[in-house]
Amino acid sequence: MPEHRTSRQVNLVSRPDGEPVESDFEVVEVEVGELDDGHVMVRNRFMSVDPYMRGRMNDAKSYVPPFAIGEALAGAAIGEVVESRSDDLAVGDHVVHPLGWREVALVPDSQAQRAPEIADVPLSAHLGVLGMPGLTAYAGLLEVASFAEGDAVFVSGAAGAVGSQVGQIARLKGASRVVGSAGSAAKIRHLIDDLGFDAAFDYHDGSLTRQLRDAAPDGIDVYFDNVGGDHLQAALHALTAGGRVALCGAISVYNDTEPAPGPGNLTLAIGKQLTLRGFIVSSYDHLREPFLDEVGGWIADGSLRYEETVVEGIERAPEAFIGMLAGANTGKMVVSL
Amino acid sequence: MPEHRTSRQVNLVSRPDGEPVESDFEVVEVEVGELDDGHVMVRNRFMSVDPYMRGRMNDAKSYVPPFAIGEALAGAAIGEVVESRSDDLAVGDHVVHPLGWREVALVPDSQAQRAPEIADVPLSAHLGVLGMPGLTAYAGLLEVASFAEGDAVFVSGAAGAVGSQVGQIARLKGASRVVGSAGSAAKIRHLIDDLGFDAAFDYHDGSLTRQLRDAAPDGIDVYFDNVGGDHLQAALHALTAGGRVALCGAISVYNDTEPAPGPGNLTLAIGKQLTLRGFIVSSYDHLREPFLDEVGGWIADGSLRYEETVVEGIERAPEAFIGMLAGANTGKMVVSL
User: Fold this and answer.
1) How far is residue B13's CA from residue A94's CA, in Å, rounded to a whole number?
2) Shortest Cα distance from B230 to chain A (angstroms)?
3) Which pTM value belongs to this model?
């Protein structure tokens, strides 16, 4: 039996109560099983840890069903086809697919997407800047928030995979001002010095409303919300008439065990005629082609930068996930398998 | 000096602290003054009391400046031109204008709109079903919330001027289900028996989330929010994927002295891909003509009904306003002068 016939995977042992802890997860070795017709066997090289996965760990109705206890987690991964019973995919192809959190996956070819070859871009980028987080940033800013040249843009979680790309796309598309918030002085410097943000602040440094007013004295036209909670409240204060909010994530409350109160100033949306729109990236597949063209070009010519925080080894995937929720990453957090 | 050269008006004496009380207001008699070129003198017949006026009584930045202490309040009124120095308006014309809360007003003709004559419709209807509240309902449902035939619609404050019209327009435009909330058993009966709502409930009768689920077991596609607070939270639970919310008013919090917490479940908007959009009717003047055509037609053929609660005499205007905020009205609350 070849080496890849067994695989380590990460199972969910218990549903996290608040912040996940390592004992909520277990790394086990399993038999890979038989390859069905129309499937490929993929040796995963990188797997993604993303904020939305926290929601699937609860036993709650959401837009995706919850993870099952005692079974492997799942999420985006990129790997190499090592065996194929598909007419479309061949051994050696690199594919992105939704069966991460394991070393070897049996993937129906309908769920495996061949990763376009882009010079000087590592495989892991297909989980970040050229993957789901990248498309989330692109679609959320340009379509959900209807960004237009000259808009002042605020993005929270700005040093994360999605946020860092939102700010840069806004800059490259002619924003009048790009402001971000993040959770450390080093991240703030990174946003301003490396990514070209006009201003950035650390959300630990006191009133968000005041900090945002200082960072964007003329207000903001677009808020890209990765965080929820107090950040949304501060943004509602700062938004100008006709302003738009893309509701993308709420990482500040994902670990909450009680519902957090919503923004106490939501009624400002009436007089300012604001639009708040929630979205999930799977509804924006129609933008994948322009997204890859445009962002691929910006990466190639160096005008858009991206960072990755790479954790080595499947046994450290739970640690990577827990760290990502706490802001341990700059840019996209991935696990190398 | 002719009788109309003096006028009683209602001044704001003090900014209400929470619920307004009669002593916040004062009825005084004043000289009307000289009629400038381009102005008309209007003997007001009816004045409007509307929820948004509560906001203007606070000393707070809003989309309209606050009322000044010691000066007359203002708001929509309809009256008869009794003197004219305008080329466009003649003595005897009926005009709608923004200088209510007084018996006689000197109005620039640019701010006075001739009321179209519609058979069997009283003058006061131009402050309600055919006026600003009517256009608010029409624009908010059809344009802000992008209502489409087959949508299930929930409207709060459903027995009020705006709400009662929202529900009926939804019914007449082919809603699959129309649900309303209001504050008394009599209002609930009125909504179902007189206005053709499919279901309605009294917000005093326990959990709004449960009541809304019972009233709309398959969920709602559109929520027209006149109330804010808990109603919005219940609606977020009930909204289907792609649902839309028109944020029109928040009468439940207008008298609050502390900011009320927002809906604790706003993050549902992400996964359900909801759109929440605030609006003010002054941005929807472009719909006035189709609104008057369509709603005028429905009134004429009896398919749209409207109620008015009429309070007699300017000295009772503060009482009418306070009562309207507390839900004393069914349909539009007006003061006959």
Assistant:
1) 75
2) 11
3) 0.90
